[in-house]
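Obj: model holo form, ligand = adenosine-5'-triphosphate.
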Amino acid sequence: MTERSAIHARDVRRVFESRKGFFFNELIRTEALRGVDLDVDHGEIFGLLGPNGAGKTTFTKILSTLLIPTSGSVEVLGLDVVRQAAELRPRIGLVLGGERGLYNRISARENLRYFADIYGVPVVHRDRRIQEVLDRVDLTEAADRRVEEFSRGMKQKLHLARGILHGPEILFLDEPTIGLDPKSARETRKLIRSLVADGVTIFLTTHYMFEAEELCQRIAVLSRGRIVARDTVAGLRKLVGGDRTIEVEAYGFDDGEIQRLNRLPGVSRVMSEEFGPRLRLTMRVRTDELSLEQVRAQLVNHPELAVRERRTSLEDVYLDLVEEEAS
Ligand SMILES: Nc1ncnc2c1ncn2[C@@H]1O[C@H](COP(=O)(O)OP(=O)(O)OP(=O)(O)O)[C@@H](O)[C@H]1O
Ligand SMILES: [Mg+2]
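Output (holo structure tokens):
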């Protein structure tokens, strides 16, 4: 079979069964993934977004051979993640968030030596390669200190160093900047871009919308085990009804006013929410035709009216999609 995409997943399902109750006699069945299809191209940065418990980590683990799907098929770099896992593993890197998976009593450099041996990095190149990745994640100064002395962010950087040590063709990053200070997070994003420039394909999950917007060509939104949208950021803005977001605030609006706003040219939806003592209407707008004056003209009985416009952000899109799914 020819290798179409870097990642090719079809109808992936994963069920977890766990026991609870005093005698562990109650069987709990969680459908973490309920039929996920996904294609990721070679050399792109693909972002997976979704609320807590949506299934992002589960899916990332399946793609990186750490977890076996209950059903469905996944090929990464043209290899089946279940049947050809051993062949695939040396060609991929995985960085899961959190503090586990490092040896605390030895130094960062010694940790990397250990992992280099596991990954089969040839001994002649090993120390040079370790120095290279330490430089790349900005850990050179701390390289010979014991990991137990490391801050959370330093450990996260060491995780990243471990993930790229063996020069993977595709890198899976589960919340790569979680716990990092703004400067380290920015350096990490820079590192991610430089890896892509070297030809690495990146699959990442994140809760930070600006991070996804800044890094990813394409994004998928996972909600309760299903992909609810998948597109470029521009495409997703269209999907939720427009590039423009107009916000209107006053002390209450009547239904007639809201209906009139809905009928204005290019308005795809009007949502209302309480905002302190005031009510805020958020309008998604598709066209440039509509002016703020036209909006004000519909709401002449509100002397305290505030009208502003901003660009629809990825966060708006995300919240619209996840709310739609929940309702
Ligand atoms: N080992 C496990 N045993 C039982 N249930 C599990 C297990 N791992 C995950 N789950 C369940 O599967 C669902 C998806 O979890 P997952 O960790 O993939 O979500 P996530 O999208 O990564 O969330 P977060 O944003 O909080 O990291 C959740 O309901 C979770 O409780
Ligand atoms: Mg997770």
